[in-house]
Amino acid sequence: MRIDVVSIFPEYLAALELSLIGKARQEGLLELAVHDLRDFTTDRHRTVDDTPYGGGAGMVMKPEPWAAALDAVAGDGDERPVLIVPSPAGAVFTQAMAYELAEEKHLVFACGRYEGIDERVLEWAGERFDVRPVSLGDYVLNGGEVAVLAMVEAVGRLVPGVVGNPESLVEESHSDGLLEYPVYTKPSAWRERPVPEVLLSGNHGKIARFRRDEQLRRTADRRPDLIEKLDAATLDKADRATLAALGYEIRDGRVCPPA
Ligand code: ADE
Hints:
- By secondary structure, the chain is α/β, with parallel strands linked by helices.
- It contains nine helices and eleven strands.
- It has helices at 19-26, 63-73, 95-102, 119-125, 145-156, 167-170, 204-222, 224-228, 237-245, and strands at 2-7, 31-36, 49-50, 60-61, 82-92, 106-110, 130-135, 189-190, 193-194, 249-251, 254-256.
- A five-stranded parallel beta sheet has the order 2-1-6-5-7.
- α1 links the parallel β1 (2-7) and β2 (31-36).
- The radius of gyration is 23 Å and the shape is elongated.
- The mean pLDDT is 96.
C-alpha cells in the first residue's frame, strides 16, 4: 500500500517511523511519504492560510498550495486514490472503515489546520480522488495530524504481513461488534487479586464461554449502543441468557434495551 500525508507539520508524523508501522515501512509493506505543504507555496513567506470570506474567526487554508501538493501525489491517473481529509465535520472513523481502507492501493491524507481547507479544493479533488472527510469522533483537535496517526495505525495494521500473528486481528475489540474480553497474565494471584479461576481450568469450552460473557457484559456496561446494533441471528442460546440476565429482550431479531 502507498500512503502520502500532506501537512504543515511533517515532524508530527515522525511517530510513523516507530513500532509495527515503522517496521512495515522498512520491509516495504507500506510505502509512506510525508510532504510539507509549504514546499508547494510560491511566495517568499510560504503562506498557506488567509482570512475567511464572509468573515468569522480564524484562518482558512488557501487552495493553491493544496492543489499543487495533491497534483504531486495523485499518481499517474490509472488509479483513483482515496483522499482522506480528517475533519470533525467528517463521517466517523470505525473499524469497518479501517478494513475498507486497508483494501486500497493508495491513500492520501490531507491534514487541515486552522478552520479547515477552502471547500473548493475538495470539490476539485473529486475529479481524481475518492474524497472522504473523516472524523475521529465528536471532539475538536487542532489539526488533522493526530487523526492521521490514528488512522494510519488502524489501517496499516490490517495490511497483510504488518501484524506478525494475523489471529490477533480476529479476536479484538469491534471485530465482532463487541468490546474485547479482559486479559490476565502471571502471577495468578497479585495483590490479593486472583485471576478468574476458569482461565486456569484448561477447559477451552468454558474459557470461550467466560470470555464471550465478559464481552457481552462489558459492552452492555460501556457501549450499550453497540449491543443494540447486534444482529440477534448471530447470538447463541448462552449469549441470549447472558443478555436476558442484563435485562435485554430479543424482539423481531433485535436486541432491545432494558425499559
Ligand atoms: N481535525 C480536528 N478535529 C478532528 C477530529 N475530531 N477528527 C479528525 N480530524 C480532526
